[in-house]
Structure formats: structure tokens, C-alpha cells
Amino acid sequence: MNYKILRILPEFETNTYLVWDEKTSEAIIIDPAFPAPALINELKNLKLKYVVNTHGHGDHIGGNEFVLQNFKVPLCIHKNDAEMLSNPYLNLSNSFGIDIISPKADILLKDGDKIIIGNEVIKVIHTPGHTSGGICLHTDNLLFSGDTLFCESIGRTG
Ligand SMILES: [Zn+2]
Question: Which CATH architecture best describes the domain 2-154?
């Protein structure tokens, strides 16, 4: 398993991750923060399988529509955060003066679900607190924790 951090929304310090299986080049993108062309360029040599949001806040879903316009793949989010995708008040983008409305989820995740890319398994761990449907994604020795953890602290609870 390999991964790369994309800092496409530096104002919010949001981490967007590209995660892929080196043998098959199958990939997921975690939290496309912003409609940045870099997202598409980075995916040129990979086979995107899913877009996965760790939770429904605007700075983690702002690039969903842009990616899905370029790649016909399922959008995945925990079921408790699904409503945030299309509601700028719930996803808090309205309070920043930009109404972010993402396409609806295709797959509603729950604790224990497995996301398969190539020969690799990514496990969904439900970690409510920051949002009701916050998740972490675990594979090998990697944990993609969204806003469950902030640097040197836990995430702000909402
Ligand atoms: Zn958040």
C-alpha cells in the first residue's frame, strides 16, 4: 500500500490522501478538499475505485463533485454523515460563505466495513465525536483519521 498527501486547501490545513495498491494501481481518494486540477493529474496513472469522505464537513467534501465529474466511481461516507453532503448548513460551508453541495453518497459505510483496492483491504472504524458519522480508515500500519485526531490533540467535538 502506498499513499500521498495532497495539500490542496492549505487555508484549512485539510489533508487529502491518495491511497493505492502498488501491484494493481487501484486507488481511493480520501477527503478531496477542493476542486483542484492536481487531483485529476495525480490520478492519471492510477485506477480510481472510490471517493471516501472521513466525515461530512465542507473542507473534506469540497472536491467531491469535481472528482466525480472526471471519474465515474462510487462516493462513500458513513451513514450518519450522509445528510451533510447536500446541506451547506450541516456541512458548515455556509458559515464560510460558500455553499458546498456534494453529490449524494452511493455507498453508506458502517463500522467494520471493508474497502477493497487491488489486493489490499482498508477497514472502516466508526469514530463518532467530531461528527456523528466520523470514521477512520485502517490498513497495514496506516490510519487515516480525518478530524478524529488533530496534531497533538483530539479533534474538536461538534
Ligand atoms: Zn471536520
Answer: 4-Layer Sandwich (3.60)
Q: At residue 22, what is the residue type?
A: E
Domain coordinates in residue numbering, the chain: 2-154
Per-residue pLDDT for 32 more than 90? yes
Angle at 84 between CA 31 and CA 42, to 5 degrees: 20
Q: Could you give the CA distance from residue 37 to residue 42 in angstroms, rounded to a whole number?
A: 9
| Separation of CA 113 and ligand 1 centre (Å) | 21
In total, the chain counts a number of residues equal to: 158
* Ligand 1 mean position, distance from CA 57 (Å): 5
Question: What percentage of the chain exceeds 70 in pLDDT?
Answer: 95
Does the model's pTM come out above 0.85?
A: yes
